[in-house]
Amino acid sequence: MSQTETTKLNRYSSTLTQEVSNPAAQAMLYGIGLTESDLDKPQIGIASTGYEGNPCNMHLNGLSVYVKQGVQANDMVGLIFNTIGVSDGMTNGNAGMKYSLPSRDMIADSIETVVNAQWYDGVITVVGCDKNMPGAVMAMARIDRPGIMVYGGTIRSGHYKGQKLDIVSAFEAYGKKLAGNISDEDYKGVIQNSIPGPGACGGMYTANTMASSIEAMGLSLPFSSSYPATHEGKQNECRKIGAAMKRLLELGVTPKDIITRESLENALTIVMALGGSTNAVLHYLAISRAAGLPMTLNDIQAISDRTPLLADLKPSGKYYMEDVLAIGGIPAIMKYLHGQGMIHGNCMTVTGKTVAENLAEAPDLEFESQKIVFPLSQPLKATGHIQVLYGNLAPRGGVAKITGKEGLRFEGIAKVCEHEGEILDFLAKGEIKPGQVIVIRNEGPKGGPGMAEMLKPTSAIMGAGLGDKVALITDGRFSGGTHGFVVGHITPEAYEGGPIAFVKDGDRITLDAEGREMTLHISDEEMELRRSQWVKPAPKFTRGALGKFIRSVKPADEGCVTDEE
Ligand code: FES
After folding, report:
1. Residue 351 class from Cβ within 10 Å (0-12 exposed, 13-18 middle, 19+ buried)?
2. Is 523 in the active site?
3. Which 8-state DSSP code applies to residue 194?
């Protein structure tokens, strides 16, 4: 490496390692074991959300060691640091889930903090759960130094009595238990066998949605989202990251060269084609803002309108993410869509090549031999499954996931739950009946706080056999594992005096996914009367992480970001 190259590649870390006015920093770097020649090398922060407490993250510190080996092998210094992760599968609507969405911005803040404060020349994020990935990408966009995201990989499916299982199987077993539809032995059997080891939840839920679409956006290596956590390809990917990072440093390619309007469209096209999570809407609104290219709900709707649903993946379909690798992974799907003019090929990626150049090496998607991804001539649904609904219930929008299996229109009678937990009480008492629109409110970004995911309610409804007989609307969110006629992200939220706060039991509600409307059938005068009688609730938290989140979070239609005025 010439001195000119060295200076270029270590332009940030050289502030600490080369300037004579920083003897303490240099002493500390010798103290951690670096040599004199190491101080000339670029320094790469390796941010891991590894922790032992859940399957999505339990292996990430191990993968980070492989990443570091690859970085060191390419004549750079790799320095691992940790940030937090919160497992959405191990939270509870009345406690932990309130921290889930806030954790995304805490992760972004913490990665930004370490990389900027310690003057790293680049960052590799090793992440593997719902909020970790958007949090990492938001940080990478803010920092805008060469960066690559490594996905920890999807989980393998579990098995019990000849059936494949995943985390949603465990949630739905609870609904079956409430409805008396499962024996104690089978209930235990499902829980003990749903999760066979490391990896993120295995359907096209939020983690796999974000991993697939971030790969499509160009911020992770091809196949990063397709290798399961325990696949040898995942370790190989980690070892290859060092060479890719070196190339990015040499080319001077940063995340803002990669995150562009067109690459965001590529990401969201993949979300739509795969039937991905509604959480992707929230996260891409936030990522686009972090990159200085703010998208709106209508931008996302436009992508949904022009992108057919092609993949028969869980939660609404049959297959798991582990099955996608066998048909050529996300690169094969992207190659097909690119060939059909649906993916922008000119976008830069972390390989240092464009999307089109990467896809030239990708396998072809064969339609004769598989039923996981369908051709554009035979889509599962002619347009995307994400629908933004507006109306007097959601003046600034609500986000629905409509795959077609749940119908396109639902008209019913409101059953109001003042918080997520209340529906479980109603279910246990037999008060949830066919024909109801269940309204779960006070779960928005500020009111929840944290916009809890309604996985437990929707899974319990499914387990109780009411999945196609009721609809559910909320100012909270849905898990990527949710299916059924559901509309979330309703904005303004109840806490801010949104109309969802004024719904009463027995009101008639229409949800029209085709006309993209959600209507509370009361007169304008009645709406105003209820508004005048409404009293804003006190914030549930005023101190600590959640108190800060309530004060700083933007509404769902602005991605719930916390770093804007
Ligand atoms: Fe981590 Fe599902 S809880 S991916």
Report:
1. buried
2. no
3. S
Q: H or E element: which one contains 321?
A: helix 321-326
Domain count, the chain: 3
Please tell me whether the interface predicted TM-score (ipTM) of this complex is above 0.95: yes
- Distance (Å) from CA 208 to ligand 1 centroid: 9
In a domain, 521, yes or no: yes
pLDDT mean values, one per 10 residues, the chain (565 residues): 59 96 97 98 98 96 98 98 90 76 98 98 97 98 98 96 90 84 95 95 95 98 98 97 98 98 98 96 98 98 97 93 97 98 98 98 97 97 94 97 84 96 90 95 96 84 86 91 87 98 98 95 98 97 98 98 96
pLDDT digits (tens, 9 = 90+) for 359-394: 999 999 999 999 999 999 999 999 999 999 999 999
Does residue 311 share a domain with residue 444? no
Q: What is the CATH number of the domain that holds 256?
A: 3.40.50.2300
- 57 with 185, same domain: the answer is no
150 plus 174 within the same structural domain: no
Can you give the CATH number for the domain in which 528 is found? 3.50.30.80
Structure tokens at 525: 């005068």
| Nearest by Cα to 211 from 124, 265, 277, 167 | 277
Q: Are residues 186 and 215 in the same domain?
A: no
Q: Whose CA is nearest to atom 1 of ligand 1?
A: 129
Residues with CB under 6 A from ligand 1: 56, 87-89, 129-130, 167, 200-201, 207
Query: Which sign does the torsion angle of CA 414, 420, 422, 428 carry?
Result: positive
Residue 111 corresponds to which amino acid? I
* Catalytic option among 369, 479, 532, 552: 479
Residues 393 and 542 grouped into a single domain: yes
Nearest to 557 by CA among 390, 443, 416: 390
Q: 457 with 440: CB under 8 angstroms?
A: yes
Q: Nearest-CA neighbor of 343 among 328, 327, 360? A: 360
Give yes or no: residues 189 and 312 share one domain: no
Q: Which domain holds residue 479?
A: 386-558
Mutate which of 49, 51, 52, 56 to test ligand 1's pocket (most atoms within 8 Å of Cβ)?
Answer: 56
Answer yes or no: are the C-beta atoms of 187 and 222 closer than 8 Å: no
Compute the C-alpha angle 52/149/279, nearest 5°. 80
Ligand 1 atom closest to the Cα of residue 207 is 4
Contacts of residue 3, defined as CB under 8 A and 6 or more positions apart, other chains included, come to none
Measured distance CA(330)–CA(270) in Å, rounded:
9
